[in-house]
Design goal:
Layout lengths: L2 H26 L5 H10 L4 H29 L5 H17 L7 H16 L2 H32 L2 E2 L5 E2 L1
Antiparallel strand pairs: 1-2
Helix pairs in contact: 1-2, 1-6, 2-6, 3-4, 3-5, 3-6, 4-5, 5-6
């Protein structure tokens, strides 16, 4: 399968998915779509099987990071000291318990987003609310990325050398 075609397909996937996310979040939900767009780019792929694998890996690690971040925020409060401890625990859980190496850096990133939301607002309730909102944006972006990758594979199938379809 020629790499130049994959690059063009990926560019189309990203452009379409960005437009969908931007419209849905900026205009319908009145929120900043940045986290969702970044997550979509990380989870999208011109090959559907790879997009599914990235989505699964990212989703698992987002959930691990989100849960750990929320627990540390609720138990430790919106204090700065919780951030390094929570990130260390998140990395250990992601590395040794969950063991989904693809996107495993996503777990501590998500925990940091959740805890930073609480620390910046100096409120556990506000931090939990903002943290859950950011996690939802990440999951939404990943879903849109996989959905667009799947739809594009149906509309514009890419053939591998030898005549077999790739998607």
């Amino acid at each position: 399968m020629p790499r130049d075609i994959l690059g063009i397909r990926f560019a189309c996937n990203v452009a379409i998915a960005t437009s969908l996310i931007w419209y849905a979040l900026a205009y319908l939900a009145d929120t900043n779509p940045l986290w969702a767009i970044a997550s979509m780019v990380a989870a999208a792929d011109p090959q559907v099987d790879e997009a599914r694998r990235m989505f699964r890996s990212r989703l698992i690690n987002v959930l691990v990071g989100g849960i750990v971040g929320l627990l540390f925020l609720i138990i430790g409060g919106p204090a700065e000291w919780t951030l390094p401890l929570a990130l260390g625990v998140t990395v250990l859980l992601s590395s040794y318990v969950i063991q989904v190496q693809t996107m495993w850096r996503q777990a501590p990133i998500t925990a940091a987003i959740v805890i930073a939301s609480g620390a910046s607002s100096h409120s556990v309730v506000s931090g939990v609310e903002h943290g859950l909102h950011k996690v939802a944006e990440v999951v939404f972006g990943c879903l849109v990325g996989v959905a667009v990758s799947w739809a594009m594979s149906k509309v514009w199938p890419i053939r591998q050398r030898g005549g077999l379809k790739a998607s």
